[in-house]
Amino acid sequence: MSEPKAPKIEFPCDYGIKVIGNSAPDFKEFVVGVVARHAPELCEADVSVQDSSKGRFCSVRLNIVATGEPQLKALFEELKASGRVHMVL
Q1: What string of pLDDT tens digits covers the 89 residues of the chain?
Q2: How does DSSP assign 6-17, residue by residue?
Q3: Within 13 A of 65's CA, how many CA atoms are on the CB side?
Q4: What is the pLDDT of residue 1?
Q5: Cα maximum dimension of the chain
Q6: What is the spatial order of strands in the sheet that 57-66 belongs to?
Q7: Cα–Cα distance between 21 and 23 in angstroms, integer?
């Protein structure tokens, strides 16, 4: 029996991203800046921020229009390479 394949994403599409890192005054601006380089149509209404219960971590949720796998791969790699991001979901 063959394994079921993961569903293919049809691009362009709306795509939600959650970025988690250490809480810092400029973390939201940092994340938005990186994402905007890869998805220039990002607007402030598509961004929300939530601090952890103890205030140690911060999560930034964004909705973008994803144009393809190369865009998403480059975006995830730049966020992770920064050293400020713990997880990208």
Answers
A1: 566 666 688 999 999 999 999 999 999 999 999 999 999 999 999 999 999 999 999 999 999 999 999 999 999 999 999 999 999 99
A2: PPPPPSSEEEEE
A3: 5
A4: 54
A5: 52
A6: 47-51, 57-66, 13-22, 85-88
A7: 6
Token readout for 84 is 């400020």
Residue 64 tokens, joined = 């973008």
Contact status, residue 34 vs residue 79, Cβ threshold 8 Å: yes
**Contact residues for 74 (Cβ-Cβ < 8 A; gap 6+):** 38
Residue 87 CA: distances (Å) to CA of 2, 58, 60: 31, 11, 11
Radius of gyration over alpha carbons of the chain, in Å?
14
What is the predicted pLDDT for the residue at 6?
Answer: 64
